[in-house]
Amino acid sequence: MSNYSELVKNFERIRAYMREFYVYGFKSREDYDKKSARSYDDERRRMESWLGDHMRFVRTAEGKNVFISIDSRAVGHNPFFKAWKTKSFTDGDVTLHFILFDILHEPSVRRTVAELVQEIDERYLAGFEGPMMFDESTVRKKLKEYCEAGILEAERDGRKMYYRRAESPDLLALDEVLHYFSEAAPCGVIGSYILDKQEKSSDVFTFKHHYMTGAIDSGVLAALFRAMREMRVVTATNVSRRRETPQRHRLIPLRVLISVQSGRQHLIAYLPEYNHFQSYRVDYLSDVTLEEVTPRFEELRAELDRMQKYMWGVGITRNGWREPNLEHVDFTVKVEDYEDYIVRRLEREKRIGRVERLDEHTYRFSADVYDSSELIPWVRTFICRIVEMHWSNREIERRFKRDLAQMYRMYGIDEEVER
Amino acid sequence: MIFSELYSAYYNTVAAIIARILDGEHSERELQSIVTERAFGESALTILPSLKSEKWQLVHADMTTALTHRPTMPLTTLQKQWLKAISLDPRIKLFGVSLTGLDGVDPLFTPEDYYVYDQYSDGDPFEDEEYIRQFRVILTAIKRHSQIKFEMVNRKGNTMFVRCRPVRLEYSEKDDKFRVVTAGWRSVATVNLAKIQRCTHYLGEKILVGEERETQYDTATLRVVDERNALERVMLHFAHFEKQAERLDENTYLLQIKYAHDDEPELVIRVLSFGPMVEVLESASLRRAVCDKLIAQRKRALR
Question: Using CB atoms and an 8 Å cut-off, which of residues 262-301 of chain A contact chain B?
Fold first, then answer.
């Protein structure tokens, strides 16, 4: 434990643990022991340090379970953002950072590397008993890193290269904007980074039906967005539940499909080597590397636009450019006199397809989709009023009815009805 | 790089400590309180000791510093790109602010790059001028802790005249709607913002007593059978609740979730959506509600 630090170098491992602790939360230490007990102890301790009261413990027959439990309605700010603020650094990094920005305290101040090195030594470090030494190459490397991050700018003047701090937008009166969008927009953790620099924090918003787990996938998401903006091919590692080992895939990211009802985010991508469209769970992707620009991006995205008219969720059974086999779905519900809200539900919850009024009390939803099994959970929410259904994929329809019969048995409904 | 020390809680805490030292504060206890407030549970063991021991050569042992300016850092390109991206979101109009200084910045993403496919289609009219005006009145009143008055039509079709103190705005991503959580209004605790009409600041002298109404919670106990990847789907679906899970055997799990009593009708249909993979064991009222739906369905001759 002597080398333990609450900061981490690599986010990927913590990402996996956070998901296990938050989404599942029933595994005991012994379940993790198979990999590494030491690693489990360290990651658990880190999360306790970051998340405090959101960490819970329970003792079961299988051992002590540690899990994360959060009522998203009760917390105005996503606690998982904290995990993104734990990057480790060296003593030199932090010292150099604050001294550099103290010297370059406003955009009009500029210095060469040599001037900076001298000023750091003489003005800032000379007063310490064992002063750190920063040579030109170390300072130059840091300046280059900061120029790439966009917080410093380099400008050539004659034969000399000068560095100055970059101009920054005025952020006055943005507290509420940052608070709202850091929770409600993709990659919200970046908004939270900006919010951290504000004098006062905003607590005017809370969020219902708020899936906070997406926050831990922000790194992958940001890389995918960058690839789309630059129309690039990427290679990414995918962990599939169907395969034991992670696979590297070469793909063209086309759009991220976000669910606000299941907590899942998917990437729809095109695999050039296989001439194939595919959806990937964003939380199963890692190590996204941007590759070459592709001239096919716009053509492929236009094709995706066309395909989305037949996608209820993320299911695309599309190989190449062949015309797909669409599956027809329709079901009819009975609505009583005082149940206008059911008609409104049909209208607002349908994502594609149409709703027809058959008579005063009967309404029919119909659609043609790539994957009709994706509609099943939604159709089940109308249980108690479904009077008719026609699925061209007969197996899916039979499964729906079998499941319904199983639910009757599970809750003893047949007996109740016969009584 | 989204994972960078530039955004770390440690850097932010060190910046706050240096700012306080420059303001003339040298008491270790005071500076330690900044660490408690801004960093993590165990940060107290690292941050101030690293500064005091001159491991991080920014502060001397006597808590003075050679730095002369309150530490600030310009926005990174990534932060500017995210701001640019949200400037393209129609909901930005609600706030009446202009995001300046972003000319020539490429957005991190555009509305074309993502799609929320299961959001309800009757969301709030975020670009409607009257809706925006009322949103701002409410936002201002929340920040000032002041009262508002408005009209709304209740379920019976009668117009109600309401005076209350808005406490916060609750946004639902699924509904794509804001609700105003109120205090001092006896009959209703929350109201959909889109249902509010003629909302203005209340400038009278009448005082309102009462705080935000306390939410009544119930606990649901669900038995989850892990077939067709149900376990993962259920756990993710209910992830936003306070919850606790337990493994019963190889493919059966027990899940307890704490939910607001008022949300029970919604919870019933969410449970139903999982079919036979999820059975409600408790509460009795939740199980009864599921049974009633199934009985009603059983009586229909489904073709």
Answer: 262-264, 301
Listed in sequence order, the residues at least 6 apart from B46 whose beta carbon sits closer than 8 Å to its beta carbon are A5, A6, B10
Among the listed residues B165, B290, B192, the one whose alpha carbon sits nearest the alpha carbon of residue A208: B192
Indicate which CATH number applies to the domain containing A238: 2.30.30.520
In a domain, A3, yes or no: no
Q: How many residues does chain A have?
A: 419
What's the rounded Cα separation, in Å, for the pair A398 and B76? Answer: 55
Does the interface predicted TM-score (ipTM) exceed 0.85? Answer: yes
Condensed to tens digits (0 to 9), the pLDDT of residues A276-285 reads 899 999 999 9
Residues of B in contact with A411 (CB under 8 A): 279, 287, 290-291, 294
Contact A91 B82 (CB under 8 A): no
A321 in a structural domain: no
DSSP track, B16-85 = HHHHHHHTT---HHHHHHHHHHHS-TTGGGTHHHHHHTTSSTTS-TTS--S--S----PPPHHHHHHHHH
Predicted confidence (pLDDT) per residue in A39-60, tens digit: 888 888 898 889 888 888 888 7
pLDDT tens digits for A247-269? 999 999 999 999 999 989 999 99
Distance from CA of A160 to the nearest CA of B (A): 24
Q: Give the rounded percent of residues in chain B with a pLDDT score beyond 70.
A: 100
- Is A134 within the bounds of a domain? yes
Q: Phi and psi for B69 in degrees, rounded to 5?
A: -120, 145
- Last residue of a domain, which of A78, A103, A122? A78
pLDDT at residue A1 above 50? no
Helix, strand and coil in chain B, % to nearest 5: 40, 25, 40
Q: What is the mean pLDDT of residues A366-375?
A: 95
**Structural element, H or E, at residue B287:** helix B284-299
Per-residue model confidence (pLDDT) at position A318: 63
How far does the CA of residue B204 sit from the closest CA of chain A (Å)?
24
Of B102, B110, B272, the CB nearest to A169: B102
A166/B74 touch (CB, cutoff 8 Å), yes or no: yes
Contacts of B60 in chain A (CB under 8 A): 127-128
**Cα separation values, A68 from A17, A219, A262, B62, B253, Å:** 11, 21, 18, 41, 17
Q: For A269-298, give the DSSP string.
A: EEETTTTEEEEEEGGGEEEEEEEEE-TTHH
Please report which confidence band the pLDDT of residue A172 belongs to, taking 50, 70 and 90 as the band edges.
confident
Task: Provide the chain A residues 326-355 that lie in CB contact (below 8 A) with chain B.
Answer: 334, 344, 347-351
**C-alpha distance from B79 to closest chain A C-alpha (Å):** 6
Flag whether A2 is in a domain: no
Q: Which domain holds residue A26?
A: 11-78
Q: Report which DSSP code applies to B275.
A: G
pLDDT in the model for residue A287:
95
Task: Report the alpha-carbon distance of residue A371 to residue A308 in Å, rounded.
Answer: 12
Section A9-38 average pLDDT: 78
A166 shares contact with chain B (CB less than 8 Å): yes
Distance from CA of B91 to the nearest CA of A (A): 9
Residue A57: the pLDDT is 84
A100 touches chain B (CB under 8 A): no
**Contact in structure between B123 and B177 (CB atoms under 8 Å):** yes
In terms of C-beta density within 10 A (0-12 exposed, 13-18 middle, 19 or more buried), how is residue B112 classed?
Answer: exposed
In Å, how far is B120's CA from the nearest CA of chain A? Answer: 5
State whether residue B30 sits within 8 Å of chain A by CB. no
Q: Same domain for A412 and A337?
A: yes
In this complex, is the C-beta atom of A324 within 8 Å of any C-beta atom belonging to chain B?
A: no
Number of domains chain A contains: 5
Residue B187 CB neighbours (<10 A): 7
Tokens (6 digits) for A306: 């066309």
For the stretch A113-122, pLDDT in tens is 999 999 999 9
Q: What is the mean pLDDT of residues B172-178?
A: 96
